[in-house]
Amino acid sequence: MNLQSLKPAVKTKDNKRLGRGQGSGGGGTARRGHKGAKSRSGYSRKLGFEGGQMPLQRRVPKFGFKNENRIEYKAINLNVIHELAEAKNLSIVTVDTLRENGLVSKNTLVKVLASGSLTKAVEVVAHAFSKSAEEAIQKAGGKATKIA
After folding, report:
1. For the chain, does the N or the C end have fewer beta carbons within 10 angstroms?
2. How far apart are CA 99 and CA 93, in angstroms?
3. Dist. CA 97–CA 119, nearest whole Å
4. What is the pLDDT of residues 5-28, one digit of tens each?
5. CA distances for 99 relative to 40, 65, 107, 142, angstroms
């Protein structure tokens, strides 16, 4: 086999020539069956149409509510801040510090929660704090600063 001897694959089947008379094998109805919407030109089934049966979207009742004004925070616990401050020997932990260490992504709002303990005096700068986290930071000799 050489590069010169390569040939394209042989086409074995001709396209169906629909609506081209009785001799085409699909004459009369052009292989669309008899009558009904599907046999007409311009037919396209509506999205979610179930043949006249009440569609699922209308059978199932509406429920729930999505609050458009909800503010999503990424939760960071005190034990994570403690480990980071110990490992990097930090006295101030900001959102940028968390971002640099891969704990939060670019445009994330951060809320500090009180799970775990904090023994080192650390100034923590974040978007929000739980009451118990704020108290725990102050008890350890640190400072909790909110970003406006």
Report:
1. C
2. 11
3. 19
4. 988 888 888 888 888 888 888 888
5. 60, 32, 9, 21
